[in-house]
Amino acid sequence: MPELPEVEVVRRGLEPRTVGRRIESVEVLDPRILRRQSGGADRLRGALAGTRMTAVVRRGKFLWWRLADETGEDTGEALMAHLGMSGQLRVRDAGALTAASGVAAPSEGPASDPLRHRRLTLHLDDGTAIDLIDQRIFGGIWASPLERAADGAAAGLGSPDALLPADAARIARDLLDPAADLPAIARTIRSRRAGVKSLLLGQDLVSGIGNIYADEALWEARTRYDTPGAALTQRRALGILRAAGEVMERALAVGGTSFDALYVNVDGRSGYFALSLNVYGRAGQPCRRCESPIVREKFANRSSHFCPCCQRIR
């Protein structure tokens, strides 16, 4: 699943190609991609027809475009997108989609085929098309009314003000957000008895962290995944949050983590942070710090990777 660095790579790729552009039409190829849209395709088309994209914003793993009408006034709604497990937002010029016959090229392995798995396309006034490609259809796109962020700060990266979609209002700020209050997040983590990894993944205390970056951050902070939040000192809890932020910044600098073509940027290129992972996906390989074999354990219907020597139960 794309996590915060991958979604931010996508946001940065979309920003110069969509902000200021007008939405000419919405092409829906698979209505399942609109399952979060009340009223379906007709409601979405009505919300977007003739609107201009004025900003593309991210909070955690959620993206949204701010929309203005023909007079330049905010419409009061945002166009939201979530990539789910295998979603991609790809930018192409008019006519760039191959296979004019309409026959999809064969797909290799788990990669999302840009023809077979194209679910929706936004057609913009300069001829650009934004394709939502999603093999597993866990992602989606929909319109959501705007409301003011409770703390009054900018709603997310790229936002001009404190307005955010109602469907993102309960999503916590992420660690790349200047308005995130790390000491307060650390205190809340310390008030919970759940394992620290569960708390990082919950999205209600801090957003954008998934399995990959949780494992990497906990290795950096020398903390085992099932350590109860209440067992952490304030210093250690802050250290985990800062480690997570630093890991995601490093991933962002190289385009995120791609294990296959299920995640690519808006131009179809992969990220290279997989080459720098210290524990995730390295079960049985030596720890880069102490050379003990990395262990993989089942955790909440997924896996946790850790070093049994560097990340001991305290």
Strand order of the largest sheet: 2-3-4-8-9
Distance between the termini: 31 Å
Helical/strand content category: alpha+beta
CATH homology-level superfamily of the largest domain: MutM-like, N-terminal
Q: What is the overall number of helices?
A: 6
Task: State mean pLDDT (0 to 100 scale).
Answer: 91
Per the CATH scheme, the topology name of the largest domain is N-terminal domain of MutM-like DNA repair proteins
Task: Give the tags.
22% helix, four-stranded antiparallel sheet, alpha+beta, N-terminal domain of MutM-like DNA repair proteins, 23% strand, 314 residues
Question: Can you describe this structure?
Answer:
The chain has 314 residues and is an alpha+beta fold. The protein has two domains: 4-168, Alpha-Beta Barrel (N-terminal domain of MutM-like DNA repair proteins), CATH 3.20.190; 182-306, Helicase, Ruva Protein, domain 3, CATH 1.10.8. It is 22% helix and 23% strand. The protein is built from six helices and eleven strands. The chain has helices at residues 4-18, 40-48, 182-190, 196-201, 211-220, 234-253, and strands at residues 23-28, 52-59, 62-68, 74-82, 87-92, 118-124, 129-134, 140-148, 163-165, 295-299, 302-306. The strands form three sheets. The protein has a five-stranded antiparallel sheet. A four-stranded antiparallel sheet has the order 1-6-7-5, covered by helices on one side. A two-stranded antiparallel sheet has the order 10-11. Helix 1 (4-18) crosses helix 6, helix 3 packs across helix 6 (234-253) and helix 5 crosses helix 6. The protein is globular and about 60 Å long. It starts with a helix and ends in an 8-residue tail after the last strand. The model is unreliable at 98-110 (pLDDT under 50).
